[in-house]
Amino acid sequence: MTASGLLKRLAIGALALVLPIVALAEPIVIKFSHVVATETPKGQAALRFKQLAEEATKGRVKVEVYPNSSLYKDKEEMEALQLGAVQMLAPSLAKFGPLGVREFEVFDLPFIFDDDRELHKITQGPVGQKLLRKLEPRGILGLAYWDNGFKVMSANKPLRTPADFKGQKMRIQSSKVLDTQMRSVGAIPQVMSFSEVYQALQTGVVDGTENPPSNLYTQKMYEVQKYVTLSNHGYLGYAVIVNKKFWNGLPGDVRGQLEGAMKAATDFANAVAQKDNDDSLAGVKKSGKSQLITLTPEERAAWKAAMNRAHREHMGRIGADLIREVYRETGYDDNKS
Ligand code: LMR
């Protein structure tokens, strides 16, 4: 055998030894925890990301989705992400305050967005990107915004005027802006994990709550709420976030493939959210368990006038410059209903 023939053989032999190791290499696991049902916009988008990510990386990445608080509840999941026990989350924008990133509460300001078009000017524009970068000092990278929708208000009494809220115990997410929003109409806000809301409503620990129809429906909250006011008084959506060290430590090609999958999953999330909420509302209506209330323009204006207190009181906390920037983009006018 010639020297080059020998070398060739040796190379093939070495390859044969390495190949099974490569083939058997453990996939990179991304644990994606969230608190809502699989049938919601976020639940569907998480599964879409899993499918696209696993396809794009040809199995080098495995995404494990844990819905419905099955792995962690609201507060725990943020801690778990920072510790690296879970790699990806999509918490509601109202849940970043306790992390010390108060600017995200700008999204909670009542009536700040009239519709998705105004919202997307922020979430798909430079202001949204600037906000995501504020997470980095906390060891978190923000990858995308996923839509859910505008919130309805539910209770066991009809909520039409601000006076109707007086003394009602209302479950809220952990946002100071939402706390003020409820107090501004005389309600008593109570912060509570999403996983505990159904039972709290059922047992009367709280009287009512707010959420987009997709959550109201899939958590069956409508079964324990007599009235649902279609107020669209505020927005609830998500930031998809990852543990920064984990993400930056990924092989470059894998990270690129995952970014592509995230972009496609984001387009999907934002395309299905409105329809999911419409279908959920139709489901609530069909159940006949809650009565739906539509506000007159005057009633809605009265909510807006009262809840505007949340804008005034949180200018300093959230940042007046940021709030004004959002006003400029969306054309928010506190005198207009
Ligand atoms: C809530 O706690 O009401 C929502 O943030 C749940 C969710 O993730 O949609």
| SS elements, strand count | 11
Rg over alpha carbons? 23 Å
Q: List each distinct ligand once.
A: (2S)-2-hydroxybutanedioic acid
Uncertain residue segments: none
CA-to-CA gap between the ends? 89 Å
Number of helices: 13
Order of helices and strands: HEHEHEHHEEEHEHEHEEHHEHHH
Shape: globular
What amount of the residues lies in strands? 15-25%
Q: Roughly how much helix do the residues carry, as a percent range?
A: 40-55%
Strand order of the largest sheet: 7-6-8-5-9-11
Overall mean pLDDT stands at: 93
Structural class, judged by helices and strands? alpha/beta
Characterize the largest beta sheet: strand count, sense, and whether it forms a barrel: 6 strands, mixed
Oligomer: single chain
Q: Can you walk me through this structure?
A:
With 337 residues, the chain is α/β, with parallel strands linked by helices. The protein is 47% helix and 17% strand. The chain contains 13 helices and 11 strands. It has helices at 3-24, 41-56, 74-83, 116-123, 126-133, 176-183, 197-203, 213-218, 244-248, 252-287, 297-307, 309-318, 320-330, and strands at 28-33, 61-66, 88-89, 140-150, 152-155, 169-172, 188-191, 208-211, 227-229, 235-243, 291-293. The strands form 2 sheets. The chain has a 6-stranded mixed sheet with strand order 7-6-8-5-9-11. Helix 2 links the parallel strand 1 and strand 2 (61-66). The chain is globular and about 65 Å long. (2S)-2-hydroxybutanedioic acid binds at residues 35-36, 92, 148, 173, 194, 211, 215.
